[in-house]
Amino acid sequence: MSGDVRRAMALLHKDLLTERRSKASFNAMAFFAAMVLFIFSFALGPDSPNMTAGEGQTLLQYLWPGLLWVAIFFTGVLALGRSFQVEMESGGMEALRIYPGDKKAVFAGKLAANLVTLAAMELILIPVSAILYNIDLWTKIPALMGIMFMGSLGFAAVGTFYAALTANLRARDVMLPVLVFPVLVPIVVAAVKATTLIVRGDPMGEMWTWIRIMLLIDIVLLTVCTLTFEFAIED
Amino acid sequence: MTDSKETAGSRQGSGDLVVDAREVSKRYARTWALKQVSLQVGQGELVSLLGPNGSGKSTFIRVLTASTRPTFGEVRIFGQQPKNGENARERMGVLPHQSFLYDELTALENLRFAATMYGIVADKDRMVDALAHVGLEHVAGAQTRTFSSGMRKRLALARATLHDPDLVILDEPYGALDVEGIGWVDRFIAEQRDAKKTLVIATHEIGRALSLCDRAVQLRGGRVMFNGPTDEYEGAVSGATVAVGLNLEGK
Predict the structure, then answer these.
(1) Domains identified in chain B, total number
(2) Which domain holds residue B238?
(3) Which chain A residue's Cα is nearest to B105?
(4) A chain contacts of residue B92, beta-carbon cutoff 8 Å
(5) Which residues in chain A have Cβ-Cβ distances shorter than 8 Å to B141?
(6) Taking Cα atoms as reference points, which of B62, B66, B97, B99 lies closest to residue A90?
(7) Backbone phi, then psi, for B23, in 5-degree steps?
(8) CB atoms near residue A174 (< 10 Å)
(9) Does ipTM exceed 0.85?
(10) What is the pLDDT of residue B239?
(11) pLDDT score of B176
(12) Domain containing B53 — which CATH number?
């Protein structure tokens, strides 16, 4: 294992250990995700018929893919913002700049930690929302996991980059979603569309098109964020 | 007062320079924190950076450690630019102004993380030895949130030298320490000197710095006001800040 891979793993381990002990991100995320799901449920009504498509579904079932991703992005921003707050609380990002090694390793470690946190949140959010909205996902779990991973990867890449960029700002809690959400529009569209096709079926064979689009977006976001991360953590 | 351009680098040739900073300026917004600061430090030298608050000591340290980029000028550590020079940063140990310890991690875990980041083997015996060296082996498993400022400083010192660096840079090592803590730092500096390490120390403790170091560099308003042997310092430097500092040391 090269030194930079070890550095990335050390950062991942350190961030997860810190999160496991403080539970600062996860508790806030779980509470916020539950609130979002319940608010959608109350606002749209659990038994409201779906008048648009007339597929014998409730409105909540019809809108579930979009609502799920909205909940993931809203709650995920909390975790992403927190990822560099840990560094700020220890005195700033100076320590990460002082250590030798490629700063891409720092990005990789932080990205991996954010992905694990997002995955943990999704593991709770998806079954709970499926039960709450009465959606049968049992046979669709493998395909759904693939889409969740691709959507979360792009989200975590952009979020990690902007969390580092805004960590020193006083208005970072406002600036992070303001900067992240516009960049995420393409991945949101693709992720919601692919999730919808998984849940409702894919009679037109569109799934591979959306998967290719998501892969392309992920590659672009990962490449740009990795190459420019060094400037994001500069003083 | 001595002109920086006359004295800087006059003691060393360029061949064995550990630190070679030339005409370094740093601007934050509209304020110049450093103005054409030059400093050359040779192998095994102990150099103290002195000056009042806001004189540019910490900014200069941050430039040396590649924590911030100079607006103008050039810095070389072991002949490499610290930002891009892997070798330079691997051979440098830094005690920053703040501890940079992770409160949720134990002392041992903090050291283990630093060891991996420095690219050395993070085996437990080595970490425990490092903790024992600064008298913290009995709290190896305690989270650093429970540590006093003196214990945090000692742990940060252990971390700074974990990878056996050739250049040790200390930013305000005596800050927020009691008498026992000050003794620890003094012993640490003496050990580094005995081991022929190169030290750059930014401090307010003028008397202590003059007694421990070979050379003093006085900064004021971001400029070098004196750069020479410590025994010439008192005669060369005049001004209210230094006089007050020396009086306080006397008390």
Answers:
(1) 1
(2) 4-250
(3) A18
(4) 98
(5) none
(6) B99
(7) 50, 45
(8) 11
(9) yes
(10) 53
(11) 74
(12) 3.40.50.300
